[in-house]
Amino acid sequence: MSENWREITTNWTGGSVFKTAGSNGVELQMGSNEIQKGVSPMEMLLMAIAGCTGMDIISILEKKRQTPKDFKLVVRGLRAPDFPMIWTEIEVEYQVWGEVDPKALEQAIDLSEEKYCSVGLMLGKAAKIRSSYKLFASGG
After folding, report:
1. In this structure, are strands 27-30 and 128-136 parallel, antiparallel, or unpaired?
2. Among candidates 112, 104, 115, which has minimal Cα distance to 131?
3. Tens of pLDDT, residues 8-59
4. Is 75 in the same domain as 113?
């Protein structure tokens, strides 16, 4: 396989439960039943945008010598009422604690949303994505 391709493996474990593993072998459970609890595939998309943009923000801030004491993302999604029930609106809230320059944070968010976060750029083709941030002086 080419270096640009990525492969995951997903196995059905019964009911509506699946175990999936990334190319590095780390497993995640999707779906739930009475015994096994997992994440829904649609929620995984919200988690993916949080992880993608979160990694971008931390990396960009560190390059700007702006290291937060704590960092949290809250992502909310609104699904269409009819099938295929895609995400139609997504809100990303960046919560940052510490002595971080607001301009540096705004630039990091802009770069992530407009250039680097492939998940957000892809989901943005189907959903309206809005973002906001809160900057707190002390640790969260």
Report:
1. unpaired
2. 112
3. 999 999 989 999 999 899 999 999 887 888 999 999 999 999 999 999 999 9
4. yes
Question: Alpha-carbon distance 139 to 123, whole Å?
Answer: 31
Clarify whether residues 91 and 109 are in a common domain: yes
Q: Please answer whether residues 89 and 130 qualify as being in contact, where contact means their C-beta atoms are separated by less than 8 angstroms.
A: yes
Residues 75, 91 contacting (CB under 8 angstroms): yes
The reported pTM is: 0.91
Q: Enumerate the β-bridge partners of residue 19.
A: 11, 29
The tally of domains found in the chain comes to 2
**79 token code pair:** 């699904």
User: Are residues 77 and 112 located together in one domain of the fold?
Assistant: yes
CATH code for the domain in which residue 96 is found = 3.30.300.20
The string of pLDDT tens digits covering residues 67-117 is 999 999 999 999 999 999 999 999 999 999 999 999 999 999 999 999 999
Query: Which has the closest alpha carbon to 96: 45, 60, 127?
Result: 60
Question: In terms of residue numbers, what domain contains 61?
Answer: 41-136
Residues 50, 87: one domain? Answer: yes
